[in-house]
C-alpha cells in the first residue's frame, strides 16, 4: 500500500515537470518529409511505427494494445481517440494520447522506463463491446477510471497487473452476476461498480478486499448482504438502490473505528436494526431509508456521537423516537434525523425542539397530536400486526455524555467531545462522499 501510494504521488508530482521539448522535433520532421513526391511516383504508404520510435519497449507494446482497442470503439462523440496516433502515448504533458498517463513502475528505475500507469476515460462516453483484452493487457497499470462510458460485458481478469489498485467502471453497461474477477484483487483501494446492470447476490469475499471505498449502488444486486460485512476495512460503502433483502448483518459493529458513511437506502432490507450500529462511533452518515426494517430504534443509536445524517424514513419502525437519539443534535453532531413514513407513536422531549428547528422530520407517522400524520385507520391496522422481537433494542453500549449531569448543558461544557455548534457546518446531504455516489457521474472522496 505505501509503495503504491508513492507510485501515485510520484505520478502527480512529476506530472508538471515532464512538460517540454522532448518529442516535437520528430513530428516537425515527419510533417516536412511527408508530402514530398520523388520522381513522380506516389508517396510510399506511411511506415508503420517500430519499437525504436518509442521511449521504450513497454510503451511500444502498450501502443499496440491501444491501437487494437481503438478499432473496437464504435462511438467516440468527443473525438477523444483523435489524439491516439503516433509514438507519443503518454499524455502527462497534454500532448499525448488523451486518457493515458505514464509513470515509472515501482520495480524499475529512471524516467526512461516510464509506461502507462493510469487510464482515465471518465466522461469520454466511448461505446465499445468490452474493456477485456485492453485493460488487462497493460501490465504496469495502477488505475483504470471509466465513469460514464458505454462499455459492456464485465470486469476483465486483472490478476496479472501487480500494481493495480483503483477500479472505477461506474455508469457503464456491465451486466451479469457480481464480477468475480475483482475478488482476487485484495489490494484494491477503490472499487466503484455503481450504475451498471449487475444482478444476483454479492459474494462474501467482496468484504475481504482491502478497499477504502466500496460503491455498489444502483445495480440490481439481490439476496442478503453477506454476514461478514464486518470484515471490510472500507470507510465509504454504498448498497443503495439494489434489491437486497434480509437484515443488516450485526457484524457491522466490527466497523466501529473505520466506517464513516454507509448507505443501505432503497432496498428491501427487513428485520430489526441491530444494536451494533450504535458502535459506529466514527460514522457521520447512516442511511437505511426506504426499506422494510421494523422494530424500535435501538437506544444504542444514542452512542452515534459523530453522526450528522441519520435517515430511517420509509420503513416499518415503531414505538417512541428515543430521547437519547434526539439529544445527539445537542451532544453530538446530528443535523438531519429523517423518520418520516414509519409508525412511530411518541417522541422524547428533546425531539420536539428538533422538529421546530427542522432537523427532525416525523411526518407520516402515528403520533396522535402532531400534524401531517397517518390516518387513524392506517395506524390501527399497523398496531394490530404481529410485532418483531428486538431483544437488544434497550442496550446502550456507551457512556452517554450527559448522564449524571445536573444540567444538560454542563456535559457539553466539559469539552470531552465538541458538540456541533449550530450552523458550524454548512453541509447538506450533497456534501458527503456516499451521497455524491448517488449521482451517476464521477465523484471522488
Ligand atoms: C479528431 O481529432 C483529430 C486530432 O485532434 C483531428 O485531426 C480530427 O480532424 C478530429 N476529427 C473530427 C471528426 O473532428
Ligand atoms: C530501466 O529498468 C531496468 C531494469 O530495472 C534498469 O536496468 C535500467 O537501468 C532502467 N533504465 C533506465 C534508463 O532507467
Ligand atoms: C497485496 O499486498 C501485499 C502486501 O503488499 C502483498 O504481499 C500481496 O502479494 C498483494 N496481493 C495481491 C493479490 O496483489
Ligand atoms: C475514528 O475516530 C478516532 C478518534 O476520533 C480517530 O483517531 C480515527 O482516525 C478515526 N478513524 C477514521 C477511519 O477516521
Ligand atoms: C435530510 O435527510 C433526508 C433523507 O436523507 C433528505 O431527503 C433531506 O434532503 C435532508 N435534508 C437536508 C437539509 O440535508
TrEMBL record:
The segment annotated Disordered runs over 411-445
Q: Where in the cell is it found?
A: Secreted
List keywords of the entry alphabetically. Repeat, Secreted, Signal
Q: Which domain of life is it from?
A: Eukaryota
Q: Name one Pfam family in it.
A: LRR_1
Q: Which InterPro entries match?
A: Leu-rich_rpt, LRR_dom_sf, LRR_extensin-like_regulator
Endpoints of the signal sequence? 1-23
Specify residue ranges for compositional bias: Low complexity.
411-422
Provide the Gene Ontology terms for cellular component.
Answer: extracellular region
Classification via PANTHER family = LEUCINE-RICH REPEAT EXTENSIN-LIKE PROTEIN 3-RELATED, LEUCINE-RICH REPEAT-CONTAINING N-TERMINAL PLANT-TYPE DOMAIN-CONTAINING PROTEIN
Official protein name in the record: Uncharacterized protein
What is the native source organism of this protein? Answer: Canna indica
